[in-house]
Structures are given as structure tokens and as C-alpha cells.
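Sample A.
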Amino acid sequence: MRKTKLIIFFSVLLLSFSFAFAQAKLRLDDCLKLAFSKSHLLKASGYSVQSAKAALAESRAQRLPSLTLSSMYTRIGKITSFSIPMGAGETKKFQFGTPNRVSVDLKLQLPLFTWGRVSSTIELAQAGASLSQLQQHQQRLSLTAQVLQGYYAVLLNEEVIRLHESNVERAQHHFDVSKKKFDAGIAPRLQMMQAEVQLKNARTQLQDARGNLQKSLIFMGKLIGKGAEKIVLADSIRYEAVDFDEGKLIETALAHRSDLEGLRLRQQMSQSQMRLANSGNKPSLFFFSGYNVTNGFDPMDPDKFVDNYNAGVQLAFPLFDGFATNKKVAQARLDYEALLEQEKEAKENIKLQMQEAIIALRQAEAKIAAQKENIRLARETLKTAEIQYRDGLVASLDVLDAQQMLNQAELLHVQAIFNHIMAKLAICRATEDFSWFEVALH
């Protein structure tokens, strides 16, 4: 019996620990670490970086000599031969080759001068590798912004549920008071029915809020690789003011934006492409050497293997390519000019994006202060209306209106806080600096 009790005790204890572990509260840093470890796109960008590095190594290999070993066996059906009398009734047979021809060749080639073709190819690969690393960085930025948005969306919906629950409690209290007054014969049935409608509407709004929370949890679960039912966040949504200088923020965005850096890398690639295209009709010089072992070379002994070597230089000079080189150069130059214009447009868009985010931030700050005062007034109004309704001085609709005013002010207040957070997030995303959220990209 005692053994059974111990087994039950430890089983309950183990289940308690398992439940506690499953419901461990997640902070923002925890969510970011999980998202970085689970993101398929981030892993794909890592593979792209490795691929670009391999392409760079491949392009650099053009500067090294190439060494090729080849072998060939040939069966020849008929061999030319002749015999020469050697005296004393003897003859000597000679044949040109052997029916079983075997050769082994070792060839070496090294570019000596390519008019910058190899260098331009390497420059293209280097810019491509840098671009792939930049795209990986941008993927981390995007994922960080998504996690922040999802994290605070969950906190917003949790706070909205809390506000709707308070509204349901107020509506329930007013309905109970109205029903008592109706049962006592001192209030008409209409007032009780109005209170009941208000209560049902409040419950419906609460149900909608719970559905919105579930959707935000599903989105968050997708980002961090957890089931929605296992996500419990440690924070609550709150207003945190920030001090900043608008001019410095815009300067920071223009100096650190990775998309501008990406355009500059593409400009470098376009310039390398111009140099590469321009070398299309220019001469190239190669050193070559070879070593060969083959049989069938000595007519006195056709099966004997004989070795030989060669060495030299090769000059190739294209004389006419149908003006293809000129067209390729013109195309590369136009691509470069287009990238310059794209950079100018991107800078203007960054300034616009920053200005809009700063305006949204200040609007949210003003709305937070206004709604905070509205909540205070709405609470006083509701308290007064409830007292006067209890004393028969005002109608039930006055209480219902006051409840609606308070609920609306509370919802607008928390929405303004969320808008303030999203405006901060937009600025952080534009400057690629999330220090306002105490987040650093690793």
C-alpha cells in the first residue's frame, strides 16, 4: 500500500513538473532565439552564403594551373607493314603502329594574361558572396521584426481580453441591479432588457477577442516552432517613452540600411560586368605543356612505349565578334546607371519612411495621454451614473452609455500603446537597430 502511494506521489510530481515546463513563460529574447533556430528561410540563406563562398573559390581557381590526365585505348583492324630481306634467307618485318594502341597524356595549362577577365570574374564572385551575406542579415532583420510584431500582438490581445472581461463584469453587475429593480417593481422591463442586451454584446466582444488572441498565438507559434497552446508570454503591454533626434535617426538609417548597401554591391557587380564585357574582344595568352606516353611509335618495335613532352605559349586574339562586345558593354553601363537611380529613389523612400514612422510615434504618444485622461473621466462618469441609477435619478441607458464610453476609452488607450510600439518598431526596422527593445542581432 505504501509503495502504491509513493508511485502515485512521484507520478503526480512528475506531471506537475512536466506541466510547469510546458507552460514556462517566454520572454522576447527566448522567442527570438527559438525563431532564429527554427526559421527555414534563415537556414536557406545560410546555404546561399555557403554556395556563394564556393562560387568565389571556384572563380579564384582560374588563376591556378589546370592539370589533366587522359588515357585512350584504340583497337586498329589493319596495320601497314612491309618486310625487308636481311640476307641469309632472313627478313625483317616493319609495321606502322600496333593493333592495340594505348596512350597516356598529361596536360598542363596556365593563363598568363587575360586582359582582366579572370580578375573581373573574381570581383563578381566576391560581390556575390558579400551580397549573399547581406541577404542573410536582411533575413535576420525581417525575422526579428516579425517576432516583435507577433510578440506584441499577443500581448495586445491578452490586454484586450482583460478589458473585455472587466466590461462583462460591469455589464453583469448592471444587469443584476436592473433585474432586482424590475423584480421589486420599481423599474420597467425595458431597462432590464436593455441591460441584458448590453451584457450579451459584451460577452460577444469578449469571445471575438479570444479568437483574435488565438490567431496571434498561432502566428507566433509558426515563428518560434511551438504549438499555440504552449505559448505563455512573460511580459505585458505597456507604454515606454523614447527620446530621439529626428535628424540623427534619418542619418543613421541612411548610413546603416542594408538595402542601400545591397544596391552598392550590385553597382560594383555591374562595373565588374562592364570590365568583363569589355575584355571580350581582347587577346589572351596561355602557357601550356604536356607529357605523353604511347606505343606504336617505333616501327622497329611497335609495342614499345615511348614518352615525349611539349611546351609552349598560345596567343588568342579575337578579330571580329559582330560588335557583340560593344553591345554587352553598353548593356552593362545602362544597368549601372539604372542602379544609381534606384539608390537615389531608395534614399528618398527611407527619408519618407522615417518621417511617417516618427509622425505615427508622436500621434500615438498624444493619443495615449488623451485616452488616459478619458479613462479617468469615463470611470468617474460611470461611478456617478451607477449611483444615480440606483437612487432612481437617471435611466438605465445613462449607465449603459457610461459603460460603453469607459470600455471604448480603455480599448483606444491600449490600441494607442500598441500603435506606439509598432511605430517604434518601424523606426528600428528603418535604422536596423532594435536597441529600443533591448534586442541585438547576433
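Sample B, a different protein:
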Amino acid sequence: MKEIIVDSKYNGKKLNTFLLDTFSSLSMNLLYKTLRKKDIRVNDVKVSENIVVHTGDNIKVYLSDEQLFGTAPNLEIIYEDENILAVNKPAGIEVVGSNSLTSIINNSLQKSAKPCHRLDRNTTGIVLFAKNDDSLNILLDKFKNREIEKHYYATVYGIPKTKHADLTAYLFKDAKKSLVYISDTPKKGYETIKTSYDVIKIDKKANTSILDVTLHTGKTHQIRAHLAHIGFPIIGDGKYGNNEINKKFKAKVQKLTSYSIEFKFTTSAGILEYLNGEKIVLN
């Protein structure tokens, strides 16, 4: 049995949406079979229908961990020392939450670590974890003050005219819809975003490019939305991309990978000073 609480993101959503998003190995068929058997309880009441759930609801699912989670993925540890841990996150898994990257690290790998930043569910690549509170506080401060530089590879549809661009725009986050909107001009409620890219490979026949993208501000869905806004959607992006293009390339998740984290401290980093000038890179 697994017990979970509905968070605000799923307030007013159907039970199946919440459970399928939460449990990576739960299939639609098994979910409805479990409902028919009344092996799901909402606030200790057995339910047999796909009801609407609300923030704070207590959900109990009477299935095994293997049925809900499957087997834990083999995670690639890119770098580890006494203070930090860097892991290569696969697609299809959240950084935090039930059956998340964090829970797998702390449960399956017997580590004690907290994430210092996040990647979208279907974005792959480096996620940095702190193994103690001092390191966590330092790294959170360094990310906030942009003393840690993150680079991504993005495969986009289209070929930019210039090989390098520094982009500035304005982003609004609609938390209820889990969407962001981009504007070229300042608007009320919009925050400034800055994104740079270099074209590192093009395929004229397929009309695609691979970009090396640098985040100068770290807002929700920034790279995906910003590139789509300028006419170069990431292939496989179901939210900001083009569904016809995604079907053409048979891409079900966005082709976006965090491949490099570089420490560029301009202020004291305490016990992490040894990281200054260092870089963690995917092979």
C-alpha cells in the first residue's frame, strides 16, 4: 500500500491524472482494475470511479511498489565527493516527489542528498545534489546569484541564421495551467529572462539544429518556451513544440539535455571553495 497527499498542482483534476503522473509504472488498465476492486481510498473512503481530487486529499493505493514504480533505474553518478553528488537524470522522472530522482537516490542508493536545482520531467542530464546542509545553503545561494553556469544541448526544428545569439525576453508563469508565456516587451507580472545559444551542428536535409544553450536566468520551462517563441521549437516538446514535427521525428519527449555545470564563484563558497573554476560534464 502507498499513501500520498494531493498537492495544489492537481486540485480539481481527475484521480487518474494524479495517480498516473505520480506512479511511473502504473498503467491505465491496472488503475481501472484497481478502482473496480475498490482498492483505492480517498480520505479513507473506498472509491470505484475516476473522481475529482482536491488539495490535501489523502489517497491510499493498495498495490505493490513494483506495480506502482517498477524497478529503480540504474542511475549514472557523474561526480561525488563528501559534499556534493551529480547524477545523470533520465527522462520520465521528476527531481522531487513520489518515486522521484531524489527518493531513488536516498532509498535505492542509500545516499542522503537534497537537490539544489531541478530539471523538467522529460529533460535529461546533470542534477546537482548537496549531501549536507552547509553545502545545500551554499549551492542554493550560488545558483540564485548566478555563480553556477548551466549548459544544455537542445535539438530544435529549424536552422538559425546566426551561429550565436544572446536573447532577452519576459516570462509569465501560469501555475494553474503549468504553462509559461513569453513576451518580447515588458508586461505586468512578467519576469526578465536571458538565454544564449551557439549553433554547433545543422542538418539541412532534416531542417534541424543542435544548439548549445546557456541559461543566464533559471525560470520554469525557460529554454523550451524561449526557443519556441523565436521559432525554433525543441523536437519532442509536447507543450511548447509542434505536434506534427514531433510525430515526424517520432519524438515523444523533448530533446533537451543538461550536459555541463560550471562553478564560477565570485564570492566566498566556504567548504565548497575547492569547486571554484571546476566543471562537471556528461561524457
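Observation for Sample B: The longest helix spans residues 133-144.
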